Amino acid sequence: MRKFLTSKAGFFSVIVLCFWIKSYIIYQVEFDLGVNNILQQFLLFFNPLNSGLIFLGLALFARGRKAGVWLLSIYTTLNLLLYANVVYYRFNSDFITVPVLTQTGNFGSLGGSIADLVAWHDLFYMVDLILLLVFFIKTKANWSTERLPMRKPLLVLVSGVFLFTVNLGLAEIDRPQLLKRTFDRNYIVKYLGAYNFMIYDAVQSFNSSKQRVLASSDDITEVENYTKRKYAEPNPEYFGKAAGKNIIKIHLESFQSFLIDYRLNGEEVTPFLNSLVHDPDQNFTYFDNFFHQTEQGKTADAELIMDNSLYGLPQGAAFVTRGNNTYQALPAILQQQQGYTSAVLHGDYKSFWNRDEIYKHFGIDHFFDASYYDMADEKVIGYGLKDKPFFEESMPYLESLPQPFYAHLITLTNHHPYNIDEEDATIGPASTGDPSVDRYFQTARYLDESLEQFFNSLKESGLYDDSVIFLYGDHYGVSTNHNRAMEELLGEEITKLKSAELQRVPFMIKIPGVEGGGINHEYAGQMDVMPTLLHLLGIEARDYIQFGTDLFSKEHQDFVPFRNGDFMTEKFSRVDGVYYDTQTKEVIEEPTAEMEELRETIIRELELSDQVLFGDLLRFYSPNKEWTPVDPTQYRYGK
After folding, report:
1. 624 contacts: CB under 8 Å, gap ≥ 6
2. DSSP state string for 582-623
3. Cα-Cα end-to-end distance for the chain
4. SS3 letters for 77-129?
5. What is the pLDDT of residue 5?
6. Residue of 156, 148, 169 whose CA lies nearest to 61
7. Contact at 8 Å (CB) between 461 and 395?
8. DSSP characters for 240-297?
9. Which of 145, 205, 239, 266 is most buried, with most CB under 10 Å away?
10. How many angstroms separate the CA atoms of 457 and 392, rounded?
11. Could you list the active site residues?
């Protein structure tokens, strides 16, 4: 054993072991990664090993004692990178990314002095470096001066790659599509480790930069021409009716329209929302053919679409991969045109979906995340704060905003797998035998009750009557994996067309001084919300790059594209390559020229939207002479 430990192989084993143990200790002590089960705990412990074998294994290609120098150098570099993340995390609850490093203005988020973020116990993180250096000095005389046979360092690297593959496979079991659907940097670190996250982040940044570099100002011209041709003139009865009014935007998590008026065992699941739809005194207009248009980004896609009238990306989430793009989002437009203050209120932490970065590019003034709320265990379930305490605790923040304001409140409780505490459930579950579907109705009822509570609070505060209030569903709640249960509940077969029809989500809006329009059957999607709001406020939507059209316009384009190229219209629809008569549900064997032309239009529209995001084309576009590009360094979030 003594002979082995004083050899090159022995020193390599010791330094890998130190790297492994130290990384795991820092993960546990310094980072709050939200480890929730045994598999996640195992992966957190396991993932530093493959990183150590790969990165430190590179040093074994060096000759003789130089391998020791390289081992210490690589080990020290990796430790410095990890420690930099420790210091950064203490203030930001987040990890350093390449965009952070390339935007020097972000360093200001570390506070007045980095020294304030250094803890006395950080000295212990240097002990291993000193001991390893001493160990190397005392044992290097015993090392062979020859280079190791090539097969040995190659075997180490192959072992590291193999262990990483196992690591990734286990991570995918617990979090499917981990790398495709990048929810949060915390997730990557938790499942794959801080070092693999650095590689992942560098690859993402390189790919983004490459596509962005190849873009030019000429590329935006075709996009501008297309959106101006599609533009719909505002309805004079609505244009400017809400000018200067507060806007309260309420996100209904995973809420599908089939829940409206649905009765479970003879009982209304959402009686309050039903009253908004049917009671004329509520003055809401409800669009019952309104569809979500999200893809892998789900909630993040919905936010992107509704504040920018741009499609999400075909893979991943633009909130993460295009978080540093130039945007001309609704919050910035409202601020520059009419002096609005903007805020997002959400009972989850700010780094989720990269919100704390992309919101700065949207020009959002305030982000009240979980750090502003009481996150006691009894108030939290699933992804964050329960909806009732969330709305209750949001009221003081809402009332504190300078008016007029644009406030976006994001609910959480009605989220898969739809867990709910017994004391919060006021309706029994369904009885299909599919647990998440059965509970879906209970969390939807809880959301409905929390909305009624919130509306009462708005009325008491005096904000209700002077505000545009609209509610929207962000994406589906029940996926096609649960078709058997849904067929039992709906009493019909879930065909491909029916599945597409179930992508309807609620959109209902109240405009001060305007009588509600009852139920509007216009076919529409999330893309149409931004131009609608602009026209309600008296702001000309034509000036901006938008792929949606005003819902109240007589020229509204009533086709609803989905991210995969399918679409829905009142007359005909295309789902999974097959055309259907939307009314009769019959397959159309021979598509008409009109259908094929619309199909080509939609494909082109998706391509143009992708060009805007991939090429960051809005940096080349100015809506008008008064427009000032958003400077993200002027925004900072956190309590």
Report:
1. 543
2. TTT--B-SS--HHHHHHHHHHHHHHHHHHHHHHTTGGGG--S
3. 54
4. HHHHHHHHHHHHHHHHCCCCCHHHHHCHHHHHHHCCCHHHHCCHHHHHHHHHH
5. 66
6. 148
7. yes
8. TTTTT-EEEEEEETT--GGGTT-EETTEES-HHHHHHHH-GGG-EEEETTEE----TT
9. 239
10. 8
11. 299
CA dist 223 and 541 (Å) reads 15
Question: Using CA of residue 55, residue 60, residue 61, residue 66, what is the dihedral sign?
Answer: positive
Question: According to the model, what pLDDT value does residue 108 have?
Answer: 41
Predicted pLDDT at 105: 37
Mutual angle of helices 185-192 and 194-213, in 10-degree steps? 130
Widest Cα–Cα separation across the chain: 89
Closest CA to 231 of 571, 604, 617, 534: 534
The label of the residue with tokens 């001084």 reads: 513
Residue pair 548/528 in contact (Cβ under 8 Å)? The answer is yes
Name the token pair of 39: 């598999």
Instruction: Give every CB contact of residue 266 below 8 A, 6+ residues apart in sequence.
Output: none
pLDDT at 183: 47
Tell me what pLDDT residue 382 has. 80
Find out whether 182 and 316 touch, Cβ atoms under 8 Å. yes
The answer to whether the CB of 85 falls within 8 A of the CB of 167 is no
| Amino acid in position 544 | Y
On whether the CB atoms of residues 505 and 475 are closer than 8 A, the answer is: yes
Q: What is the rounded distance in angstroms from the CA atom of residue 241 to the CA atom of residue 258?
A: 31
Return the DSSP state at 433: S
CA 9 to CA 376: how far, in whole Å? 50
At 346, is the secondary structure helix, strand, or coil?
strand
Q: What distance lies between CA 24 and its chain's CA centroid?
A: 27
Is residue 6 within 8 A of residue 142, CB to CB? The reply is yes
- Domains recognised in the chain with CATH numbers: 2-213 (no CATH), 235-556 (3.40.720.10)
Give dist(CA 46, CA 41) in Å, integer: 9
Tell which phi-psi region holds residue 115, choosing left (phi > 0), alpha (psi between -120 and 50) or beta.
Answer: alpha
Give the pairing type, strands 524-525 and 290-291: parallel
- Which letter does DSSP use for residue 323 in this model? T
How far apart are the C-alpha atoms of 614 and 143, rounded to whole Å?
52
Q: What is the 3-state secondary structure (H, E, C) of 20-78?
A: HHHHHHHHHHHCCCCCCCHHHHHHHHHHHHHHHHHHHHHHHHCCCCHHHHHHHHHHHHH
Please calculate the CA angle 186-188-191 and round it to the nearest 5 degrees.
105
Lookup: tokens for 550: 């005003």
- List the chain residues with pLDDT less than 50: 102-113, 183
In contact, 496 and 578? CB cutoff 8 Å: yes
The pLDDT value given to residue 181: 55
Residue 222: strand, helix, or coil: helix
Q: In terms of pTM, does the model score above 0.85?
A: no
The DSSP code for 354 is: G
Angle, alpha carbons 193-201-353 (nearest 5°):
85
Characterise 183 by phi-psi region: left (phi > 0), alpha (psi -120 to 50), beta (else).
alpha
Q: How many CB atoms lie within 10 A of CB 5?
A: 14
Query: Scanning the structure block, which residue is given the tokens 């050899």?
Result: 7
Enter the tokens of residue 505.
């989500």
